Amino acid sequence: MHIIIIGAGKVGYSLAEKLSREQHDIFLVDQNEERLETVQENLDISTVLGPGGNLYTLKEAGVAKADLLLAVTDAEEVNILACLLGRQMGVNRTVARVSSPEYVENGSLEISNFGIDLMINPELVTAESILKLIRVPEALNVEYFANRRVQLLELSVDENSPIVGQTLFDLDFDHTYLIVAIMRNGEIVIPHGKDRIEPDDLIFVMAKTEDMLAVEEFLGKERKKVKDIAILGGGKLGYQLARILEKRDYNIKLIESQISRCQWLSERLDKTQIIIGDGTDLNLLESEDIANSDIFAAMTGDDKANILVSLLAKHLGVPRTISQLRRSDYVPLVEKLGIDVAVSPRMLTAGAIMKYIRRGKILSVTFLEGDRAELLELIAPSQGRIINTPLKNLKLPRGMIIGAICRGDEVIVPGGNDIIGPGDLIIVFALPKAISQVEKLFDGR
Amino acid sequence: MRYGTLINILGRLIFFLGLSLLFPLGWAIYYGEGTGPFIWPLLLSLVLGGSLFKWVKENGEIRPREGFAVVGLGWLVTVLIGVLPYLISGTFTTFSEAFFETMSGFSTTGASVLEDIEGTHRSILFWRSLTHWLGGMGIMVLFISILGTVGPGGLQVFRAEAPGTYSLEKFKPRIKEMASILWTTYIVISVAQTVALMVAGLDFFDATVHTFGTMATGGFSSYSASIGEFNNTVRWIIIFFMFLAGVNFSLYYIALRQKSLRAFWKSAEFRLYLGIIIFFSVFLTGLLWGEGETLTDTVFQVVSITTTTGYVTADFDAWPFAASGVMVFLMFIGGCAGSTGGSMKVGRHLILSRHAFVEMQRMVRPRRVLSMRIEGMVIPERVITNILTFAFIYLFLTAASTLVVLTSGEGLVTSFSAVVACIGNIGPGLGGVGPTMDYTIFDGFYKIYLSILMLIGRLEIFTILVLFVPNTWRK
Fold first, then answer.
1. What is the pLDDT of residue B275?
2. Is B370 inside a domain boundary?
3. Does B54 touch chain A (CB under 8 A)?
4. Would you list the DSSP string of A288-326?
5. Measuring CA to CA, how many Å separate A280 from each of A257, B39, B244?
6. Helix axes B175-199 and B154-161, enclosed angle (nearest 10)
7. Is the pTM of this model over 0.90?
8. Cα angle vertex B352, ends B349, B356, to 5°?
9. Which residues of chain A have pLDDT under 70?
10. Which residue among A182, A200, A218 closes a domain?
């Protein structure tokens, strides 16, 4: 595919990186010459210097032959203009990153008539992914598949967990579930039945959504009820998060330091308590009783402040902290520091766009840990060697595991004797090196 | 430095190079000559390359800073495999001779220490010319085009090997594609030349050998008289294809895509290249008036030396001083950037001369703001600095190496022209290394020294020199 990406920031860069590895022809447009030089040194793509919303620049990037245009600069006007121009000049699909949530909210605009296929708002994407984490607070990562019927959780294993030292064989339970992967010392592996669980492992568990609560209990995890949430920072992300949490009856406290912004927030949020003050001030946190919140979410635009205040909150006794991190490369480091979850809006945005691009034969793609593992939703072909053969006889490639099989209304978390039928919806967990083999496997030939 | 990856890639390169020995092996069987010189190196490279590739695991992708090492070491390994057929067949008895001939082949220099060409096995002569052809567009570039990019360092590998890439235009978004377009163009034009030469009466063997020598701007022939062996039609065919080989290969692709020749005319470098060849052909015709040199031969020498091919049809060493001086001058020109030609490249001369002009204007009127543009594009300061550095090292190395070679006892004309002809990948020089002579006058040490100069010249200075900068090897 010939793909034009406008904006060589974090989002644009990670999209270019992922897509060039998939052997697409990428033209990355940016106004910053130095940035483009750095990109050129690291990625095998073409770069075009110039403003993104400019007809001439788009022509330079070969817009007439482009299949896809991704406008992801931080200026939404430029993005929308570039998409509209691109569409006029024959681009098949366009994606724009927008900063006003109004574009993406349901029913506000008929986007397809507008000429843009997907509008994506990083703050909304991030807020939604935080919401998933709040609803399953003991998990580090929550993903849903097959219309929310299948759930994947990333859970941490602490030293005194009952499952430490057990092999996967030992962990038999009447509700079927599957540990699809284990992350140990920064590396993701797909485990065998004889592998043992060690302390500090992160396990990826897949089960029917309805069974998950029981499975978690079996694995020694308890789902605490979340009621009180404290949000630090009333910027775009803090506002979005408060807004979608409000609809779900949580008690929200939002701390914001600017009086005018507080005013603005109070005009728009109904149930959220808006508190003015400096969030890094211990006295304020104590007097507002932040220690008794169930979740503390540091959502300011300043990474350092987010990290510090989250650690402070953790110290005060908040069971769970979530931090926004602009620099996504720090995410693994920060989670080691003791902050429970770090979310990077740019990575999430790039992931969401990739999800949209890869749609087709693959129903959906979900990236885990940046892009170190993928979950694919696929439809089984009508014939081929994978159909109607028990899984244990299939000799699947290394680096992949079948997490769930959905047949009609039935969801099967498979064991060795289960089979894949034609037309089944299959959820596959795969490491990047196995992706091409997975695609071949489900090609039906 | 990721040594695992480096060794793994070198292993693949050796394996791949081994396969190219199948071609001369075919000729050896066809002519009933000894197959040993090819079979043993073939087996060695398959086993050695295969096991390095199999047993040494890659530890990550090639990073940009490793690109130089991959290319520099890749070339050394290539040449070390390349000497084996000469040594096993007994064509050369000393390592320095075989090393010189192989390096001269891969670097497309065309300087030779082979005294009895007609008495040498045809299969060896074919291998000698094949090294030209492989080295012309670049072994690593071919490698990339077949095996795909070697990671983020792919661009660096490409830059380190392809000639004249001081301002590499990525005319395709992916390196692999770019590399395969260049090689495809190279192969297509080569086939065209082989056919043309066969139509003109050469047999298949001679046609391919001379195609390899021409398209790579190399200069090895299967006759001691070089192109002097052939009639005027053949000479003009070779002039035409030498000219084509000196043009930026991406222009062929762009012209084909636009279905018009406009791309050539739009290229300032191409215009200058054409201008240089026409001007010096006319100029030399004037200088040689009444010397009994035909127009064909005058043009032939100009094109051959400017493109750094080094085929000869006339002994320009016997020309009047001014005329042979023109040949030495042309040795500093070279082909266009992105061609198979060697030396300093027309594009560098173009940018430097414009830059000199701009600098002088700045000196006269310091407050005047001037920016330098070529084909409407501003040339970044960094590119100019790079070219200035290149030119400095190139000329300094030429001067210093002349001193080194003078210690051999040969005169200034011979020593200087030998250095110029080797670093510029041309081949023949003047005096003791003139068009009718060869490089056997030099001892082993000087052969090795001149071979290294050829490599430095072929990989455009930086690739080899950075290998000696300690920082390159630090973890």
1. 96
2. no
3. no
4. TTGGG-SEEEE--S-HHHHHHHHHHHHHHT-SEEEEE-S
5. 10, 75, 70
6. 30
7. no
8. 135
9. 105-113, 359-361, 370, 444-445
10. A218
Return d(Cα A53, Cα A69) in angstroms, integer.
12
Range(s) of the domain holding residue A91: 2-120
Residue at B137 is within a domain: yes
Give every residue of chain B whose pLDDT is below 70, as ranges: 1, 148-152, 164-169, 475
Same-domain status, A258 and A360: no
Domain check: are A416 and A393 in the same one? yes
The pLDDT of residue A445 = 55
Total number of domains constituting chain B: 1
CB A122 within 8 A of CB A97: yes
Query: Looking at residue A71, what DSSP letter applies?
Result: E
- Look up the domain containing B143 and give its range: 1-162+442-475
A146/A174 same-domain check: yes
A150 DSSP assignment: E
What does chain A come to in residues? 445
Report the pLDDT value the prediction gives residue A37, as an integer from 0 to 100: 85
Q: What pLDDT is stored for residue B88 in this prediction? A: 93
Cα–Cα distance for residue pair B169/B375, rounded to 1 Å: 13
- The runs of H, that is alpha helices, within B307-443 are 321-330, 346-364, 381-406, 412-423
A37 to chain B, any CB pair closer than 8 A? The answer is no
Q: How far, in Å, CA of B369 to CA of B307, rounded? A: 36
CA distance A28 to chain B (A): 10
The answer to whether A44 contacts chain B (CB < 8 Å) is: yes
ipTM of this predicted structure: 0.72
In this structure, the answer to whether residues A201 and A236 fall within a common structural domain is: no
Any B CB within 8 A of A40 CB? yes
User: Cα B343 to chain center, whole Å?
Assistant: 8
Q: Is the domain of A205 the same as that of A171?
A: yes
Residue A409: exposure state from Cβ atoms within 10 A (0-12, 13-18, ≥19): exposed
The pLDDT assigned to A230 comes to: 93
- Kindly report the nearest CA distance between residue B152 and chain A, in angstroms: 5
B280-316: buried (b, 16+ CB within 10 Å) or exposed (e) per residue? Answer: bbeebeebbeeeebeebbbbbbbbbbbbbbbbbbbbb
Question: B41 is written with which tokens?
Answer: 């190196």
Residues A337 and A306 in one domain: yes
Residue A96 lies in a domain: yes
pLDDT at B273: 95
CATH number of the domain enclosing A354 = 3.30.70.1450
B176: which chain A residues are within 8 Å (Cβ-Cβ)?
44
A26, A44, A47: residue with CB nearest B175: A44
